């Protein structure tokens, strides 16, 4: 048999037992009808509500005479849940109203009464015999008990189901950028004090935004005081984009004769909720960038003239660059 994702507690009863007044915690249910048959129902109470997360362990049955129900409750009895479920293949309960493949926890209470009119209440209770907050009380009124016959009624208590939501998981692939080329203008061989433009072109397979980072790894100082480390954005000459291909150019001037080593790194970026861009590898915690190390060679062809502020290159004693 298959069980449902929701829980319905039911009571299978003929009459009930004594206490105060009916404590209505849910809506009333009209009587589903009576049967005039000699039927007796018994069971062994072993079960707890293990179908969902309610705290119901039994059902309190209360019976009162119709004349004055609040003053004439004559039965008040808590019955534990049975270790069986209905309809459980019992023809009498199949499709009346439960489907033959459904499984409903229940309690059963049988009591002998004088013939007459009665009101009946069924209240699911927790382990302390307190009314179960997840399941409603059910009351049926004006149930007729006949002399020499058993009247059997079925009460169904509706229980709340657990709050449910949904999780929609989308798995996406991210690829690192691709460095497509590097160009020197005029050349990677330059004179001291000569301006050089170096352009790198990159693209991202996923068309993510691209960030270029330029670094001087080794060699003498550059004009303007750039030592080994990240080259400031003030040295960026231009940035252009054409159909997903991004070209960024660096403009530098060597200050000394010597061999230089530079590195360009290209990062793909994601948008944060606040609109800021963040490197994909920082967002994911794994590498996602491309890099290229390249040389530059500077030979002496100019005059180094120190000043009180910073060095100034003067080619062959001419005007400062």
Any overview of this molecule?
The structure is a single chain. The chain is an all-beta fold and 321 residues long. The protein has one helix and 23 strands. The chain has one helix at 280-284; strands at residues 8-13, 36-37, 58-65, 73-80, 86-87, 103-104, 106-109, 116-125, 138-145, 150-151, 153-158, 178-185, 189-191, 195-203, 210-218, 229-230, 236-242, 245-253, 258-271, 277-279, 289-299, 303-305, 312-314. The strands form seven sheets. Strands 13, 15, 16, 19, 20 and 21 form a six-stranded mixed β-sheet that branches. A four-stranded antiparallel β-sheet has the order 12-14-18-17, with no helix packed on it. The longest helix has 5 residues, at 280-284. The radius of gyration is 43 Å and the shape is rod-shaped. The termini are far apart. Mean pLDDT is 80; it is low at 1-21, 23-46, 307-311 and 315-321.
Summarize it.
This protein has 1 helix and 23 strands. It is mainly β and 321 residues long. The strands form 7 sheets. Strands 13, 15, 16, 19, 20 and 21 form a 6-stranded mixed sheet that branches. It has a 4-stranded antiparallel sheet with strand order 12-14-18-17, with no helix packed on it. It has a 3-stranded mixed sheet with strand order 7-1-11, with no helix packed on it.
Q: Low-confidence parts, pLDDT < 50 over ≥5 residues? A: 1-21, 23-46, 307-311, 315-321
Helix-residue proportion: under 10%
Overall morphology: rod-shaped
Calculate the mean pLDDT score and round it.
80
Please provide the ordered H/E string of secondary-structure elements. EEEEEEEEEEEEEEEEEEEEHEEE
How many runs of DSSP E, i.e. beta strands?
A: 23
Number of helical regions: 1
| Helical/strand content category | mainly beta
């Amino acid at each position: 048999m298959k069980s449902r994702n929701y829980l319905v507690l039911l009571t299978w009863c003929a009459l009930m037992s004594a206490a105060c007044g009916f404590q209505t915690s849910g809506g009333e249910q009209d009587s589903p009808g009576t049967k005039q048959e000699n039927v007796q129902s018994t069971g062994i109470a072993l079960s707890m509500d293990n179908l969902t997360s309610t705290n119901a362990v039994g059902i309190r049955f209360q019976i009162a005479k119709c004349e004055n129900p609040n003053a004439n409750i004559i039965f008040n009895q808590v019955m534990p849940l049975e270790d069986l479920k209905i309809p459980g293949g019992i023809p009498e309960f199949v499709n009346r109203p439960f489907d033959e493949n459904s499984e409903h926890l229940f309690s059963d209470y049988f009591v002998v009464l004088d013939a007459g009119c009665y009101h009946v209440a069924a209240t699911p209770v927790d382990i302390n015999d307190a009314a179960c907050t997840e399941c409603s009380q059910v009351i049926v009124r004006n149930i007729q008990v006949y002399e020499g016959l058993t009247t059997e009624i079925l009460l169904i208590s509706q229980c709340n189901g657990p709050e449910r939501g949904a999780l929609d998981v989308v798995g996406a692939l991210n690829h690192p950028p691709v460095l497509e080329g590097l160009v020197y203008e005029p050349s990677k061989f330059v004179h001291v004090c000569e301006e050089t433009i170096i352009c790198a072109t990159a693209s991202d397979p996923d068309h993510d935004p691209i960030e270029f980072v330029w670094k001087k790894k080794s060699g003498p100082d550059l004009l303007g005081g750039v030592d080994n480390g990240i080259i400031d954005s003030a040295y960026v000459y231009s940035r252009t984009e054409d159909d997903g291909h991004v070209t960024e150019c660096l403009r530098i001037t060597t200050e000394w004769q010597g061999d230089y080593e530079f590195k360009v790194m290209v990062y793909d970026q994601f948008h944060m909720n606040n609109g800021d861009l963040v490197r994909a590898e920082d967002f994911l915690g794994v590498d996602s960038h491309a890099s290229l190390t390249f040389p530059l060679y500077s030979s002496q062809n100019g005059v180094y003239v120190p000043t009180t502020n910073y060095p100034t290159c003067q080619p062959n004693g001419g005007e400062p660059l």
